[in-house]
Write a structure and sequence with these properties.
Length: about 210
């Protein structure tokens, strides 16, 4: 169980005693209509089934401690106290990949964005205790639109961007909602360091759905 005196930062050497304005993200509106290439619009589910008691506890108590600040530049020094390679995952689902990578690279910093509360709660349980190994101190989360955070990351600063199985939005009239559109892709390119990696995973089914 996470308590108010949680030691999340200890395992990976991150000081979370004085986090910079960590706060809950504002409530989001799903299924907005309008120009889908406009940043800060969110499509898809934000809420699922009622969270279990401990999941709700993690959302209420752990998430505010490790949330990306609501405004200002999003840089490694701000999030982790000093410069380190930054990884950015768009739509992490339940956070399995992010947690796996964060555990593998304890000196790197991970920013994960996911609007779906159930997924965030699952990711928080990995952060609280990854595979029985202890907490992950090198993850920061944003429960909301990845593009909102990405715009605040200085150019040329990400070592990795992950977009794994993005929502395919198969209907032609929803095509502009896809993350793989010019606006988001240009933004990702601008934020990656020279030599940084963009890791995109698509299934054949989702590629076919998008055609
Ligand atoms: C098909 S799921 C894939 C989840 C995970 N990456 C995986 O491979 O299992 C797509 C995810 O993207 C999230 N998503 C949709 N729009 C997003 C946005 N604007 N910012 C961040 N995540 C978003 C959804 O909530 C969903 O969890």
């Amino acid at each position: 169980m996470i308590s108010s005196g949680c030691k999340i930062g200890e395992r990976h050497g991150t000081d979370l005693q004085n986090p910079p304005r960590f706060a809950k993200a504002p409530a989001m509106t799903a299924h907005k209509e309008g120009d889908p290439t406009t940043l800060n619009r969110l499509y898809g589910r934000a809420k699922g089934k009622k969270l279990r008691t401990h999941q709700q506890h993690l959302v209420d108590h752990l998430l505010p401690q490790i949330s990306v600040p609501l405004d200002g530049a999003v840089a490694a020094e701000v999030l982790f106290g000093y410069d380190r390679p930054l990884h950015f995952e768009i739509g992490f689902g339940g956070g399995e990949h992010m947690a796996y990578r964060a555990n593998m690279l304890p000196d790197h910093g991970f920013i994960g964005c996911e609007p779906f509360e159930t997924g965030v709660a699952q990711a928080l349980s990995h952060v609280e205790n990854y595979e029985g190994l202890g907490p992950l101190g090198n993850i920061r989360l944003h429960m909301g639109d990845a593009l909102e955070v990405l715009t605040r990351i200085p150019d040329d600063s990400l070592s990795f961007v992950y977009l794994l199985h993005p929502d395919p939005w198969p209907k032609a009239r929803h095509a502009k909602r896809r993350m793989m559109n010019d606006g988001p892709v240009d933004l990702i390119a601008a934020k990656l360091k020279p030599g940084g990696e963009f890791r995109l995973a698509l299934t054949m089914q989702s590629i076919c759905a998008m055609r």
